[in-house]
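ok trying this again, last paste got cut off
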Amino acid sequence: MIAIVCHGDLDGLVSAALLLDIFRDSPTSMRTTQPYLLHNSLATLGYVDQLYILDIAVDVGSWNRVVFYLSRLIEKGCKVFWIDHHISTLDKIKWLLDMKVSIAITIEYCTSTIIREVFCNNTSNPDFFMKLSYIGEIGDKIIKNNRDLLELADTIELSLMTSIGDEEFKQRLVRLWIHEYKFVNDEVIERAKLGRVELERVLKLINNNVIFSSELADLVDLRGIKARGYIGKAASIRADITGKMVFIIHEVSPREVIFTARAPSESNMDVLTILRSSLSGIGGVGGGHSKAASYRLSKALAEFAVSRLQNVLRKPFTRELV
């Protein structure tokens, strides 16, 4: 059995699709997860010969539990491959190598890029899967200049936003790619229409809930507001429109909040470093990369965290990160 655990966004699902096509003659399973829940997915795996972890950033808060379940799988003879593009995973590369985990990582590109370069020529339809990998790259803002694929990527991404917790839809989407060689179908298009309406609503909410603004960044408070699934995309759109970093605090559970951050695509701004310097010292954990990152922490510390982030954004050294 070959198991694939991937991020549920465009890059993660595209990467999984290419591998599933490569292994189409072998028993396989696929599931999606968030970085801070990776250990839960690993805990449910039975015996597998190979495990591929795709587009999952190392989450410091759950790292020890991830190590425990990975070690247990490896001891049973499972070969583990971790393919990713996040800085937090790079930070743990020595630890992973010591555990005999095979690593493929890039900081400049995304997981779809790695999978294409290694596997695409061996897929059942290299032309289709090459284009699909480009769609994965568009989802992570690696390429921006293919109008036809940009529209397809936008449609698929919007459909996924309406389906943030819908594992069955994600499975159907991947099967559409690997069995029918179609990028979208009627279901994807209809979900995308709903997603576009909801995204516009969230963009307006962001505009109306800015609690701190400077020439470098906006800080938005969406606590208590329903916007799950759309915050990252909306933050990216606002960052590109304003040319500023966008930090959004929102609730993920009754006990935790998340700070989601995006930087303008055509900039050198580093939101991950700013979140780390603001929140890691007070118990925040998370990861990502310079253009897109998130940190979560106890709801009880939310006001303190907001104050810390505002102070960092006011400091002169912040300009060195833009």
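PB: full thing came through this time. The CA atoms of residues 83 and 104 lie 5 Å apart.
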